[in-house]
Design brief:
The chain is mainly α. The protein has helices at residues 6-14, 18-25, 41-48, 50-73, 78-93, 106-116, 118-135, 138-156, 160-176, 178-185. The model has no long low-confidence stretch (mean pLDDT 93).
Length: 189
Amino acid sequence: MIEWLIVPTAYLIGSISSAIIICRLMGLPDPREQGSGNPGATNVMRIGGKKAAGITLLGDLLKGFIPVYVANILGASTLLLACIGLAAFIGHLYPIFFKFKGGKGVATSIGVLLGFSWFLGLAFTATWLLIYKIGKISSASALIASVLSPIFAWFIVGDTYIVGASTIMMLLLLWRHKSNIKRLLAGEE
């Protein structure tokens, strides 16, 4: 029963905003007040360049990966792994430390998927890269990879809880990207 304490811990880890911290450390403007206003790697790229964005991306990815990976090593059930992954992901979207205003969750979801299964995380990443190479639109690439992630989870992991967690993350990613979806449909993205 004590292992379930990892769930709120994962939420708190997810609540650490890599974008805000990296921007502060690098003397950059607050990403919530510049560019798109989103505290994520893409916006950090706009305001601070590739190095700041790369560090932000890595931080966001690791906060999804580490809690799930550690629990996986410790032999947690797939139900517990799914809850830990969702907690870290939701922490990124709605961080307690930053007034519940977080990023859109792409990098953190990749980290969670990598924690569930290396192949699952790599399938998402490969899909994102392929779609980006074709269309050069980051948000469209992330959305397509997200929509496919529950299918990948079904075929790669085959566990109902992991598929469920992947589906919930996909739905939340779509919700968080609703402004991007509107711009994509209008041909403005």
